[in-house]
Amino acid sequence: MSESSTVAAPAARFDSLALDAKLLRAVADSGYESMTPIQAKAIPIVLDGRDVMGAAQTGTGKTAAFALPLLQKMLRHENASMSPARHPVRALVLTPTRELADQVAANVKNYAKHTQLRSAVVFGGIDMKPQTLQLKAGVEVLIATPGRLLDHIEAKNAVLNQVEYVVLDEADRMLDIGFLPDLQRILSYLPRQRQTLLFSATFSPEIKRLAESYLQDPVTVEVARPNATASTVEQRFYNVADDDKRGAVRQLLRERELAQAIVFVNSKLGAARLARTFERDGLKTAALHGDKSQDERLKSLDAFKRGEVELLVATDVAARGLDIADLPAVFNFDVPFNAEDYVHRIGRTGRAGASGLAVTLVTRSDSRQIGEIERLIKKKIEIEPFELEDTRPRRRLRDDERRDDRREERREVRPAAAVPRRAAPVDPFFDRPYEEPENAEPSWERARVEPPTKTPSIRPKKKVAALLGG
Ligand code: AMP
């Protein structure tokens, strides 16, 4: 269904592209000297008007890879009119999380800053009114999470009948979260004649199906996946008892002189509690998890990005897709339930060629998950003993706290991770991105997680036939 990109060693300089001086100026303002691989490969193809299936994660420069050529194409509509009718939505970017939407929107605004093209972002968890005002005033580029976008469509704030370009960002995560029905509905509002770009870190059979249904003759653009570029990330696995984990993190921060780190945990409750204890240990700490309000999450993230916070204790869902420049280290305080989350987590560090450290604290009960990570990253994992030097008294968890933690962890296990994995956890992305294993069961046929936003008229499950049949 798709052809592979055979772009041969494209020129790495942005000014070798057919991009307007206004966009090149914004690129130069951002301090970018040369293109990242995904940019060098994708930008000419997008400028050419082709649909793209991009295998790239946040951190590879993929936002500019789609935003710059789309802005270029939209420049023909650029105008200074105050009339909203002159600023219809022409490009729609859908992302799985609010944080990613916010981040993409900030990048788009930055790349478009010397043009008269307008952009706006809408996501749930905050007041709809300011978003509505922006939409009513007219925007050319709309960045949105699916649930909130549907709310705006239903309220007739967002009119999408002039959309020419659609980007499905982190499509695998959108399906994981259970956004497939919302996506299908949104796509049904869009003109059929359009250019569609799909980005995904992994190409599972369900992503392939999504692409088959909504992309036309796409060009596949791949850049090295994070585990293939792991040379920039030093991955260490230490054997540490539960009660020693905090001490191990503190010791490694000291020994490796790490100014900042994200500490990943598997549960919301665990994140809140651990953040409090690190704070008591004297570390400036913020927590990022699903029980925090949107406002609190953005504040924590901003404080971390500004360097006011040393440790960000986060759960996977809250931290997905975050782009934090120069993050020196990531700790897996808990081994993730799902091996793919390991790849996502360690992808937070070692970006754009910078070196990074990813430390995973392993207890005896983690051997199954470690085995799955090994299979996914295709590398033997050496678990090293950890010499704990910290002599400060450690506060041991009370029995009831341990029980709470375990209960909470169970609650947060995603059904996809809880079911036994099919056959050996093959890696379709790495070997043959588009060859669907036989009898593969699409994720929407398995138990699914409730989408974070509720749209009553959406039915939670759809048959594959309905998806393919349109
Ligand atoms: P993204 O994958 O789009 O989230 O981008 C990751 C980070 O790389 C962002 O902080 C971008 O500002 C930065 N970036 C994007 N393109 C380039 C480039 N060509 N050179 C240097 N940094 C870049």
Quick synopsis:
The protein is an alpha/beta fold and 470 residues long. It has helices spanning 21-29, 37-47, 62-74, 98-111, 129-137, 146-154, 171-177, 180-188, 205-214, 245-255, 268-280, 294-305, 316-319, 339-346, 367-377, 399-412, 415-418, 464-469, and strands at 3-4, 52-55, 91-94, 119-122, 141-144, 165-168, 195-200, 219-222, 233-239, 261-264, 285-288, 311-314, 329-332, 356-362, 383-385.
Tell me, what is the CATH class of the largest domain? Answer: Alpha Beta
Helix/strand structural class: alpha/beta
Largest sheet: 8 strands, parallel
Helix fraction by DSSP (H/I, runs of at least 4)? 25-40%
Instruction: Write down the oligomeric state.
Output: single chain
* Level-2 CATH architecture of the largest domain: 3-Layer(aba) Sandwich
| Tally of individual domains | 2
Helix run count = 18
Could you state the CATH homologous superfamily of the largest domain?
A: P-loop containing nucleotide triphosphate hydrolases
Q: Which regions are unreliable across 5 or more consecutive residues at pLDDT < 50? A: 1-11, 226-230, 403-470
Q: Write out the strand line-up for the largest beta sheet, numbering strands in chain order.
A: 1-8-2-7-6-3-5-4
Shape: globular
Rg, Å, rounded: 22 Å
Ligands in the model, by name, code or SMILES, are: adenosine monophosphate
CATH T-level fold name of the largest domain = Rossmann fold
The beta-strand count equals 15
Explain the overall architecture.
The chain is α/β, with parallel strands linked by helices and 470 residues long. It folds into 2 domains: 3-222, 3-Layer(aba) Sandwich (Rossmann fold); 233-385, P-loop containing nucleotide triphosphate hydrolases (Rossmann fold). The protein has helices spanning 21-29, 37-47, 62-74, 98-111, 129-137, 146-154, 171-177, 180-188, 205-214, 245-255, 268-280, 294-305, 316-319, 339-346, 367-377, 399-412, 415-418, 464-469, and strands spanning 3-4, 52-55, 91-94, 119-122, 141-144, 165-168, 195-200, 219-222, 233-239, 261-264, 285-288, 311-314, 329-332, 356-362, 383-385. The longest helix is centred in the first third of the chain and has 14 residues, at 98-111. The radius of gyration is 22 Å and the shape is globular. Mean pLDDT is 79; it is low at 1-11, 226-230 and 403-470. Residues 30, 32, 35-36, 39, 58-64, 323, 325, 352 line the site of adenosine monophosphate (AMP).
